Structures are given as structure tokens and as C-alpha cells.
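Obj.: predict assembly geometry.
Materials: sequence records (below).
Method: joint structure prediction, all chains together.
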Amino acid sequence: MKTEIPYKIYLSENEMPTHYYNVRADMKKKPAPLLNPGTLKPMTAEELGGVFCSDLVAQELDDTTAYIAIPDEIRSFYKMYRPSPLVRAYELEKRLQTPAHIYYKFEGNNTSGSHKLNSAIAQAYYAKKQGLRGVTTETGAGQWGTALSMACAYLNLDCRVYMVKVSYEQKPFRREVMRTYGATVTPSPSMTTEVGRRILQEHPNTTGSLGCAISEAVEDALSRDGYRYVLGSVLSQVLLHQSVIGQEAKTAMDKYGIVPDIIIGCAGGGSNLGGLIAPFMGAQLRGENRYHFIAVEPASCPSLTRGRYAYDFCDTGNVCPMAKMYTLGSGFIPSANHAGGLRYHGMSPILSELYDQGLIEARAVEQTSVFEAAEYFARVEGILPAPESSHAIRVAIDEALKCKETGEEKNILFGLTGTGYFDLIAYQNYNDGTMTDYIPTDQELEASFATLPKVDR
Amino acid sequence: MKTEIPYKIYLSENEMPTHYYNVRADMKKKPAPLLNPGTLKPMTAEELGGVFCSDLVAQELDDTTAYIAIPDEIRSFYKMYRPSPLVRAYELEKRLQTPAHIYYKFEGNNTSGSHKLNSAIAQAYYAKKQGLRGVTTETGAGQWGTALSMACAYLNLDCRVYMVKVSYEQKPFRREVMRTYGATVTPSPSMTTEVGRRILQEHPNTTGSLGCAISEAVEDALSRDGYRYVLGSVLSQVLLHQSVIGQEAKTAMDKYGIVPDIIIGCAGGGSNLGGLIAPFMGAQLRGENRYHFIAVEPASCPSLTRGRYAYDFCDTGNVCPMAKMYTLGSGFIPSANHAGGLRYHGMSPILSELYDQGLIEARAVEQTSVFEAAEYFARVEGILPAPESSHAIRVAIDEALKCKETGEEKNILFGLTGTGYFDLIAYQNYNDGTMTDYIPTDQELEASFATLPKVDR
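Observations (raw C-alpha cells):
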């Protein structure tokens, strides 16, 4: 007799992961190392230690240790909002009349509204452990900044956030959440940093970009005693922390004997997708199983589907290490009509390498079709999803409809990374019928590829 | 050996309540009946059926059946977001250095952001079952309107919401969530109803009130074929549905052998407090146990602590039945500086009667002290609470600090009804130091008491 699967599978607290899982340990061909933009040599721990906390540097550079223990203090914090539920989307299946079984790992049930908190608390913890006074960071849509503010408030660390100006203006309430958690929030580009002033001089009317806010946050950290810079995505340490998503999902599915056929996640910098797929990809790399992994990105910022696999700057101001990744060039500025996150020009080096090895499929989707899926999902499953997460919903629905045609009873797992409570201007545009799509032309991409540095590696 | 209590106690889906619990069945002295404002006689089922769905009328009038089965369709919907967690506030206890054990039942993990969804789906279900085309309602802070929109979208019912104008303007994003769920949202008072036009003529600059929005919603329902009016609080049917909160909390506590000494909830119309305490109050009324119940209300709208226990109109336009309740008079308009909900001039007749019998303590708290507690809680426990819920947090902290003085290891349970993601203007005022308190003078209350009808019962 088959066990009945509940609407929501919650693990008990003692089933939560005790270690972060480092997928690089199971990769035969590893992601390329970060490079010093001056010497074009791999960044050393010492060099990275000027910008990042030392424990995080060690995690960033470690591509051989598969399991890294999660400190008790971080696990205590996780217990306040984790384990997150693995949800069986019974209602969605019913409405779609699909034979597919749809599951989603829901990371939105915390005040940061997303999975970002998983890495924020880890990064803040290591900063505190090192005796630092504070950290700086950038935030685009605002989820990462909120998450870091929460983690810093909990640990009594100072938190300085550079928020992409267009988000700062469109999302005053995100800013207010961060302030409630005691953070200092500055719209970027700002006059408080040299790189900010330079960018403002060149582009006085710019509404900012993630790459530019990163440059400002790094400069701010370097200019203060006892501060380091932290980043919410892209870096391998972030994917490491986010592996709690995939580990919990896999444990929950294993308990009920469910094997996902398709695993879908949205991909901006890659933190959610990398974390969700990590243990499954590990199993595949070890030859234990095979899965169909799909990365979903916005057609307006198509780093995987139309980018180049090359060394590039991680930020606009070129103050960060260079990373080998799928990228549109650090000069790429996503169209202003693009709502929500997933605006980063590059992609996690881990995911880039896995994609280059043909282990992940990538799809680009347009935002009106994403919001159509979001609204459909909201009405059926009750949860108002973040625009980012809705990219994964779009493809999950598409795959479920394919199963309806073929009659296949596939298990589809997707990452529902967050809620859309701070994205209602975008929903309003969709409701009003004023939302538009944008696909960059080949010429535009050629122009931004021209900003790629010449690195012969 | 004592079982260790996890951070969050989740019931399994088959431990969720199968019946609503009707506390009136265990009350020897029942709440007074609703009266027809014309005849001053108890409202009959037929009279009520013109305004409300028939199954809900039956529930409203039934004060003897203790357990009413929850239909499967409603239980399926509940499974999408329930059971809600009973959380042990370990971190809060640690920071307060209190020997008290603090628990909260968290109802905010759904897109409506509050417990309101528990009754919204029930009311929408009965409307659908009756073959109605749609429902009308009012909303103040917006939680109820959002909840009803979600329930109606799920059941494919039309939903027409009259939103208190000040909230409509201050919370455009709440409105947008409702629109995303397909609801029509009208700021109240409006020119679309007779009562709205009358109120606007008398008070052209009014920013609206809950009592006024109720009148408009009722008139709207009466003017359309296949529509009924639904209400998110005050009515006994609503407390009945909300009993799922208390039942889940009690089951979870029973499982771990925890008996709450103090049970705290915020009280506006009484839906959350009534639902949270119902099964505990039932046990006390049956002589099985004793608890210290505390209702917390805003000092700016003090219906229990300074109101009169009398028959009053439920709405400003006097189109609804009259209820015997603790009330400030239907002419009472809460101070404009008051943030969030809990603005209703009256109180649930059930809670009013229990309070009158001395079974509940009531406390009024001022809003700056409420936001101080809210911010403290957010930073320690991670969740950004709704202003309404923060009234209960304030008193839970006060009681925990008393335990610190006396050394008592009391079990404190409070209702965390919702999240504050749509209340950030209020948080901003608090962060900016511009938030003020307001306590109505005796003269002001005398003036609003003068609006009480003369009913000799």
C-alpha cells in the first residue's frame, strides 16, 4: 500500500542537515578559480581575506571537502524558521489536470521572504566569530539586504546595505524592514564612495545596478576597521550554505520514496538553484541517479542561454576578483522594465561549470508569461510568489502540461524561493495590463560582451 | 526524563481539527441574541438569511451544539497553509532572562498574512454551496479583505471589498494583492452606495471607518442578485471558525504535556482572541482547568476597558442587526494616529459576555510601547509582527518580565495573528520617532456613548 503524501512534508528539527554539502567535492572538473584582476593569478586566501571573513574564504576555496559542519549557533537560528516545508501542489495538479506530481520547496515563510536568510546567518555568524564590528553588502530586489539585516540584528553586528537605486525608490517598504532590523540603507550609486561618485559623474541619471552596488559595498568595507564585505549569491560559499534547501528536500522525498524526475529553479546569481540541486547533482555525479535539471532565467537577462563562458568582473567598478562564469559582460544593464531580481550579468561559477558540462538545461522565459503563471499559482495554491520564484513556476507548469499530453506521471520538484509581498508594483503593472517584455538584441549583447576583460585562461 | 520541546511544534495533517468548537455550548449564561433594529426582537433565521448565507445563519444562531463538522473542502484548503506552528520562543526567553516559557501560535504564514483566512474560506465555501454568485465585505487594515479574496479566487466566487479609505490610500499594496486574487476593491465611503453618499455629504473629508464600510458592503449585497454579505470578525460564526487556532494550539500543547497558565490575544472585533481561547475556555467552563485569559486592546480604541456593555449598532449606517457587546458607541471614530487594525467600536458578543462574567482580564496598551515590543520581537525571533499581534507581544513580554521578578516558571501562550509586511508606514513612523500615542478623553467617550441606541433589555 502506498503511503499517502501530505500536503506539506515537514521534517522534524533533528532531521535537519547537520552539515553543508559542497557539490564541488563530487565534481571531477572543478569550477575555475577566482582570479586577481591585477595579476590574473588565482586569488589566495590572504588576498581574499582582505575583503571576506576568513572562515568564508576557507569555504570559498575548498573544492574537495564534501561535508562541512554547520555550527550550533547557526542551527539554532535555522530552527526559528526551518525546516521549510516541501509542499505537494495537489490543487495545482488538479486544476492543470496533469498526471504529473508537482512538489515545491517553499523558502518564503520567513520575514526576509526568501531563501537568502540561509546564507545571511552563516555569513554574519562567521563575521561575528572573527570579532568583526560589521559587514557591508549590496541588495537588488531587497531580499538579500533584508535577510542580512535580520541576521545582523540577531547577532548584534552592524549592517550597511547599498541598495540599487531603482529598488530603493520602488520598494521603500523593503528599506523600512531593513531599518527596523537596525541596518543603514544607502541608495546606490551614492556619493559616499569613490566608485559611486565616478559612476554618477559618468551616468548622472543611472538608476543603479547590482554590479555597481557591489563595488560600493566593497569599497565601504575596505575603508572601515573591523568590517568585511558579504555577498548573497554567485560565490561558492553561498551555494554551500544554500545546500540546506536541497538536503531538506531530498530527505523529505526519500522519506516518502519519491524520486524527482525534473528539478527546476530560477537562476539569477544561482544561490537558490545551486542550493536546491546540490545533493541531487552530487548523487548524479557519483553515478547514483539521474535527474533533469532546469535553470530558468529571464529572457531580459539571459546569462546562461545567451551569455559567454569566460572570465569576467563580478562588479561594475571592477574591484572584485574575476570569476569564470556564464556572463553577459559586467557592462550589461538589464532593461528597466524588468521586475524583481535575477538581474545579475553573471552566474555562479559552480552552476556555470555544470551547465558547460551539459548537466543542466537552461531556459529563458518572458516576464508576462512569468506573471501569468504567478497569478495562476497564487489563486490555486494560495501563495503569492516572488517574481523570481515565478520563473520556476512557469516552467514547472509547462512541464506538467507536457505530462498531460504524454500521460507521463513525472515527479516535478521546483524551488519556490520566496513571496511577492514587496513586489506589488510589478503585480500592479501586470493587473493593469501595462507590463511589457523585453529581449535584448544581439547587437546589445555584443556591446556588453565588449566589456569582457581579455583573460587567456 | 522530560521530552525536549522543539522550536516549532507542527501537528500532522491528520491531527488537525475535524470540527469547529462552539464555546457557547459550554456557557451557562449565553451571549445575548442579535436584535432586529426595527422591532427590537431577536433576529430570526429568515431575517438574517436576507443578508447572510443560510448555513452561516444556522451557525450564528446555534448556541448549543458544541462541535460542528468542518466540510472536507474546507479542510483541503486548510491543508495548504495549516496546521500553523506552535512556536516556543526560546530566543525571546533567553534575551528576557525569564524563567517563563513563552509559546506563540503563529497564524501569519499565509498570503493573507493573518488568521483571517480560517474564516474566509469557511464563509466563501458556504456561499458557494448555496449557489451564490458572490459576496461583499468591508476591510480595515486589509487582512480580512485579502483573506476573502484568496478564498473567493480558490472557489471562483465574485468578491467585492469596501476598504476603509485611509487604508486604501496608505496600503495600495494590500489593494493590489486583492486585485491579483480577482477582487473588486472600492474605497469607503464611496459614491456607489446610498449610505456612502449620505456619509460623504455629512462628512466630506472623512477617511472612513470600519462601521461605515460595513454599511456600504451590506447595502451592496442587498442590491444584487445572488450576493450575500460576509464579515471577518465580531460575529459568533467567525469565532466558531477561528476555533481551529485554539484547538491546534491545545492539541500541540497536550502532546507535550504543557498547560498554559496565561493565554494572551489581541482584541479588535475578537476573532483571533475568541478562536485562540475557545477550547481552553471550554475546559474551564466545564471545570476541567483554570487559565488566566488576557485580552489586549489599543488604548486608543478601548472597548473592553472603557466601553459599556449594551446593545449597539454594529455599523455606522445602522443597517445591521444590533448586538449586545462592550462598545464605545457606533459613532466612535478612532484617532487617525492609530496604526493597524483593532479599530472597531464594539466587540464580539461572546467575548463581551465572558468578560462581563469576569472570566477574561482586559488590558489597554499604547501604540509606541506596542511597536517597541514589536521591534524587539522582530530582532530576536526573526518575525516582523503585525501591529495588531504586537499588542499581545507587549503583554506577553510584560508577563514574562513579571515572572523574572517572582521567579515563577509560568507557561505563557499568546496568539501571533499575523505579519506586518503591509504595515511599514507605521514601522517607518516608529523608526523615525514620529509615532504618537492617543488616549480618548472621558468627554470624547461620553460623546460617542451618546450614539448608543436606547434598548431596554
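Conclusions so far: Chain A touches chain B at residues 6-8, 10, 12-13, 76-77, 79-81, 87, 90-91, 109-111, 113, 150, 153-154, 172-173, 176-177, 179-182, 375, 378-384, 419, 421-422, 424, 427-428, 430-431 (CB under 8 Å).
To do: check interface contacts against the pulldown list.
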